[in-house]
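User: Predict the full complex structure for these chains.
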Amino acid sequence: MKKTPDTDEIKEAIRAVGLRATPARVATLVMLYAAKSPLTHANVAEHLAESGIDKATAFRNLNDMTDAGLLRRSELGDHVWRFEPIRDEHHDASHPHFLCVDCGSVSCLDDVTLTASSKRASEKVGEITEILLRGHCNECR
Amino acid sequence: MKKTPDTDEIKEAIRAVGLRATPARVATLVMLYAAKSPLTHANVAEHLAESGIDKATAFRNLNDMTDAGLLRRSELGDHVWRFEPIRDEHHDASHPHFLCVDCGSVSCLDDVTLTASSKRASEKVGEITEILLRGHCNECR
DNA sequence: ACCTTTTTGCAAATCAGCTGCATATACGCT
DNA sequence: AGCGTATATGCAGCTGATTTGCAAAAAGGT
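Assistant: Here is the predicted structure of the four-chain assembly.
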């Protein structure tokens, strides 16, 4: 799937995982694809509410599509789940996130990599599933 | 501070960060030091309730001591904070940590560094204050 | 002991997320 | 194009986790 799939491609993707392509789901994916960073349940629900979609529906869809493998849900340490589409262009690789502890904004860091300078680092480390950086973003400094 | 500080050492530590050494705080630290893994607010509150300490107090103390640098608060992914004592200066935020989302253990990764392969990464990123990797440790895999 | 500041207890509020159920829809089938 | 059924949605209330306001109580310096 390309960076910004159109409505038909989105519907296809939804059906491909065994879910029905409802307006709420399409709108959710459109929104997430348009976003540059992961969005919270509240972000999505608030936006969809303008189209008369209930927050429970928004939430169920986020979870259902996550379970179905269309979205990734991440917990950045502030007790709020954020969702972002899994673009298979990125090979489904999860990328590091940067969370501003002041304003709560999140950025995706596709081009940051981890270097272990010695094996000792991996003593306890098994499988790394998420990389999270926290700090102050440029706007908040 | 040693692995298992006694009551007086605990009181000292609390005062050292500018807080008053109240029974609730001492009991909280004693409990956390005795625990082998991070405890939830519920764990602590439940235990302290036996001594007539309110859960709001337990929670405030957990947060206050976290802010003061005596404890570390981590989020394993179930939207429940877990707390553990910071046993020595080595365990500060100056180096990356690895958090096992299964057992809650935190390990220090002194020898892992992050490399931004391009400046684009730092678009929004201002100052990074904490690097956290999450995953499954070798014992939990 | 006294005084000031920090803490505590209690109750009630908030916040994120979930659930039950009756109704409405998507979409495969004819 | 219309049907029928499994799915999805809306609504409303609920849960569990965490926080807050405020008056009373305790900590610790003098």
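The interface with chain A takes residues 74-75, 77, 79, 81, 98, 100-101, 105, 107, 109-118, 120-121, 123-141 of chain B (CB under 8 Å).
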